[in-house]
Design a protein that fits this description.
By secondary structure, the chain is mainly beta. It has 4 domains: 293 residues, TolB, C-terminal domain (Neuraminidase); 78 residues, Carboxypeptidase-like, regulatory domain (Immunoglobulin-like), CATH 2.60.40.1120; 78 residues, Carboxypeptidase-like, regulatory domain (Immunoglobulin-like), CATH 2.60.40.1120; 116 residues, 60s Ribosomal Protein L30, Chain: A, CATH 3.30.1330.60. It has 6 helices and 39 strands. Strands 10, 11, 12, 13 and 14 form a 5-stranded antiparallel beta sheet that branches. The protein has a 4-stranded antiparallel beta sheet with strand order 1-21-20-19, with no helix packed on it. A 4-stranded antiparallel beta sheet has the order 2-3-4-5, with no helix packed on it.
Length: 594
Amino acid sequence: MKKIGFTILSIALVILSNAQQKRTVLDNVDFIVEPVRLINTIGSDISPAFVDDSIYFSAVPEKYFNKTRREKKNMAFYNIYSAALDENGIIASTRVLVPGFGSEFHEGPADYCEATGELFVTLSNTIDADTIQKMFSVENFRLRLAIKKFIDGKWQITEELPFNQDTHHYAHPAISLTGDTLVFSSDRDSTGYGQSDLYMSVRTNGEWSAPVNLGETVNTPGNEMFPTFIQGGLLSFASDGRQGGYGGLDIYVTSFPEIGEIKNLGNKINTHLDDFGLVIHPNGNVGYFASNRGGVGSDDIFRLDIIRLYYVFNGKVRDDRTDLLIAGSRVDLYGCNGAILHTVYSDSEGNFTFEVLKNNCPVVEASKEGFSRDRKDISGLSYIELRLRQKQTYEVLVLDKDNDFPVGGAEIACNDEAGRISNSRGIASFVPPFPHGCELFIRKEGYLDQTLIPDTTKFVHVVNRDTVWLYKKELEKTFVLENIYYDFDKWNILPESEIELQKLIKIMNDNPTLRVELGSHTDSRGSDQYNEWLSQKRSDSAVGYIIDNGISKDRIVAKGYGEYQLINHCKNGVQCADAEHRKNRRTEFKIIGF
């Protein structure tokens, strides 16, 4: 590599969140390196940089070709040239001199900030040949940093960096994406770590801060130079002072602005000679760097094709019951050894994305609180839908039949398994696996026992509930059987009445020692004798139905009360609405023994 006095590391500032991503554009990739024949010459061609749809680079003009003496004395001065890029970031034309460059002294390397339209350039610290001849020899001039903007068809200097010094080199600028952080290389500090170190300056309200050394994590006793920013929060630079390198200048990367592990990019890029000035196109598929490994000239620019060893995998997370998209679900990517490789969360539309290594055996699993998990092998796939089933709860609500108040402390057991105890709200909860195919036995001191068979096949809600009414276990305690109907002046059991009578049959089966009286009542309309006869016939009919359904006849007694036990004021001679009369037409059962 042809030395240009000193060179400066350049770093493109990226937000910390990007720097913290687990995968960058240079992770899990392979490289193919090829020389760029369209722009390389027999001179030195170095330091590529992307400027809009072109690539800028520093190169020796043709008039200095084969001038060995000038090269040794650092007098084969660089100019800045450009070449066009195609839509894939591939160099597609020969070089041309960039307007605004072409002086008799060093111009370049440079870096461009698209956000501000500024070109940060390395220049000689003089443009006056007479000054050079009078003050010092050509080979001892220094480098400075300046900012140019494209004005009237060419690049013109708009600002000199305030920390430039004639006694030291300031070179190789690298500017952040936002244009407020500059990294460069300099020998400015006698207390530095090596021959040239990397420094950083920050622009605030148009003012540049004093340079700060990037520290011993980056800098070594050797040379650190040719910095560049790479998307995804990476700083690249060249160094010849790090242990374990391949020789000469090697290209390294680390995270920025928080400096992390310094990684050598390996022997696909680095050789035993000088390799430096790596840039990556925004498409992430192609890059360029300079090397003197052997090509057309002393230093050549090489193209770096980036071959990803992973593919992008997309998916969605849905609710298995409703088919709705689920946001915020955790999705884990597992490797062959069962370890979690990466974790993401589905977005507001249920989407998630992974970068999956090729020839791997990946498995993804989605999970979210309140849902069951879904786990699938995605080998050979590029898209999948994971379906989570919202966990259901089954509740038994226990109420007092007298007043509908909740009954706490009731035991609800499934077959011979340990049971649940209803809380103060009368609720006992079950979570999957539900008590399917078993009979729940509900018991509470002072109440008749009850049984319940849950039908889990009909569970369609997040919370599914059955309600059980407990009857107080008291002699002479009377309970109304709701919805016991008869046709006018009839006593045969109607189908809609059978449902309520079946409840009484169940209670008697659940409490095999229970003896009851079934009483039928009429309203006051009609004669007393007729109502007593009709109510007895209805009571006999209901008891007959119960006996026919397996209840022993010595456990139940039929009683017709006629209109003798009215529960409101609608007695003979009182004008009442039909709804008021209906309250008196009722069927009850009364506990008469055990």
